[in-house]
Design a protein that fits this description.
With about 525 residues, this protein is of the alpha/beta class. The chain is built from 16 helices and 15 strands. Strands 2-1-3-15-4-10-8-9 form an eight-stranded mixed beta sheet. A three-stranded mixed beta sheet has the order 7-11-12. Helix 2 links the parallel strand 1 and strand 2. The two termini are about 20 Å apart.
């Protein structure tokens, strides 16, 4: 009897181990930690994705947001396994800085799209303004020192419903080498070249003045390091009157409004995920696989889109990935990087909008998987069925030019049209009481304007809801963490049922013979 009980117990343990293995196959994988550095523009998304893959798959991805320029330098010096940047390597820098020449093979892989926003801190009569509108020309004039006061007539023309205060404007710019700065200065150089060149002349720089990753020092400007730094300055009490350029994610999380920017169709638009998706339909992508800048973006069409829904300062961020084993990068690291890249292109994009970004469309996801295939050791991660990719911009069977987010993007409200009217608040500025002044009432939010519907649960960039700025950390930088987003738990379904049945059958196969033998032996004993 003791032998029978022991055999049954051993059978249960064995079947239990089989069942446990069948439920958690991902835990059998061992991933070698990888390290990267670079962009703060896309860091909120990267940090959330890193948390997700660690908690769900045991993948460790270390990342330091030091700015795109420093990230590219780290990749060149081979001190990191990957870098993230908004612009490619600058082999012929337009700002006179040192050429960037990588010593090992690499490729660019798009990871997330978004809008460079203009976060501001402005009050009228002690109440926060949430519906500021700015033309591209006026934005350029502010960041080149031409417009210096909020009550300037040019800004008043953008904002017919606001009585703007007599207050000095404080432009807050990046002090570190930044992809955000590069994108912003490229936009000014392309769209408002006379203003940008005149600014460069004041600083003694050569013209024509193109993009620069290092924003010039100028009297009256404040310089801060990183996206956290510029957003943190604007969000403080002493930041009243300040405005900065920063990825929309930081403004959204901090609870501060962003300016609606005038597009070529004559509408003032905010950098929502939909508006960015619409704009990037006009982006041209370098699709020559033999080009060193394969998959990099040309944004002239984005800047000049005639779609009334388009946000003109839209772009996307790249991961710079190694395509050969070199330095400390190994095949094991390549396997980890491939899995992380796979996650970013598919499941990770589902969280983009919640984090203040815009998910990548199908054509860039497909191209991204081709880039993953170039990573040594990542062939397994590159072989993915795109139809099973949980990306919100497309569904199985869609063509590469399709983008569900852009298709469903709403038209701007009539009051956002350039002219004598002005919407009472920003569409993404949360629960504010509409009023002609566009000021945050900080009081009763029960009223709504039929021409300016506000979603009480949007938790956007204004009002007194949950998205308040949490203040600086001990080192003086803003404590702006990405939204915590948990991957939805999978409900009990067919796969789990089949695994349970398999486990029970395994128990039956192992235990049944022992029971039969025991019964036979028992009968023999009685017969004797």
């Amino acid at each position: 009897m003791k032998k029978f009980v022991s055999s049954i117990f051993a059978s249960i343990l064995l079947s239990g181990s089989i069942f446990s293995w069948s439920l958690t196959p991902a835990q059998a994988e061992t991933y070698f930690p990888i390290t990267g550095s670079g962009s703060t523009w896309s860091q909120n998304a990267l940090d959330q994705w890193r948390r997700n893959v660690y908690s769900n798959y045991g993948i460790t991805v270390n990342y330091t947001g030091v700015g795109s320029s420093a990230g590219r330098r780290d990749f060149i010096s081979k001190t990191v396994d990957f870098a993230v940047s908004e612009i490619p390597f600058q082999s012929k820098p337009e700002d006179g800085s040192q050429p960037e020449v990588p010593l090992s093979k690499y490729a660019y892989m798009p990871i997330v799209a978004g809008g460079t926003s203009f976060m501001y801190n402005l009050k009228i009569g002690g109440k926060r303004v949430t519906n500021l509108r700015l033309s591209g020309e006026n934005i350029t004039k502010i960041f080149t020192g031409v417009i210096v006061n909020w009550n300037d007539k040019a800004i008043a023309k953008d904002n017919p419903a606001l009585t703007l205060p007599n207050k000095i404007i404080t432009p807050v710019v990046r002090s570190d080498g930044s992809g955000t700065t590069a994108q912003f200065t490229l936009w000014m150089a392309k769209q408002h070249s006379s203003l940008w060149n005149a600014f460069c002349v004041k600083l003694g720089r050569q013209t024509p003045c193109g993009l620069t990753s290092q924003y010039p020092n100028f009297s009256g400007f404040k310089s801060q390091s990183g996206s956290n730094g510029v957003a943190g300055y604007v969000a403080q009490d002493y930041g009243e009157g300040a405005i900065t350029y920063v990825e929309y994610s930081y403004a959204k999380k901090s609870g501060f409004p962003v300016a609606k920017v005038l597009n070529n169709s004559g509408y003032y638009v905010e950098p929502t995920a939909e508006a960015v998706a619409v704009s990037l339909l006009e982006a041209k992508i370098n699709e020559n696989p033999k080009s060193p800048d394969y998959l990099t973006q040309i944004l002239d069409g984005v800047y000049n889109s005639m779609d009334p829904r388009a946000y003109p300062m839209s772009s996307y961020s790249y991961m710079i990935i190694p395509t050969e084993v070199a330095g400390t990068f190994s095949l094991k690291k390549g396997a980890t990087l491939g899995e992380f890249a796979n996650y970013m292109l598919c499941d990770g994009q589902r969280q983009a909008e919640e984090l203040g970004y815009s998910p990548l469309p199908l054509n860039l996801v497909q191209a991204g998987f081709k880039q993953i295939a170039k990573i040594p050791g990542a062939s397994k991660s590159a072989n993915t069925d795109i139809s099973k990719c949980n990306n919100p911009t497309f569904k199985p069977g869609d063509k590469p030019g399709n983008n569900l987010l852009a298709k469903t993007a709403p038209m701007p409200l009539p009051c956002d049209k350039q002219g004598s009217t002005q919407c009472a608040t920003g569409q993404t500025s949360g629960t504010t009481k509409p009023g002609a002044s566009g000021e945050d009432s900080e009081g009763d939010n029960s009223e709504t304007d039929p021409n300016n519907p506000i979603d009480p649960g949007s938790g956007g960039t204004g009002g007194t809801g949950e998205n308040i700025y949490v203040g600086p950390t001990a080192n003086g930088k803003a404590n702006l963490e990405a939204y915590a987003y948990e991957i939805p738990k999978q409900p009990w379904g067919l796969n789990q049922t089949l695994m349970l049945i398999a486990a029970l059958l395994a128990v039956l196969v192992i235990v049944a013979p022992a029971i039969v033998v025991n019964r036979i032996n028992s009968r023999k004993s009685k017969g004797e």
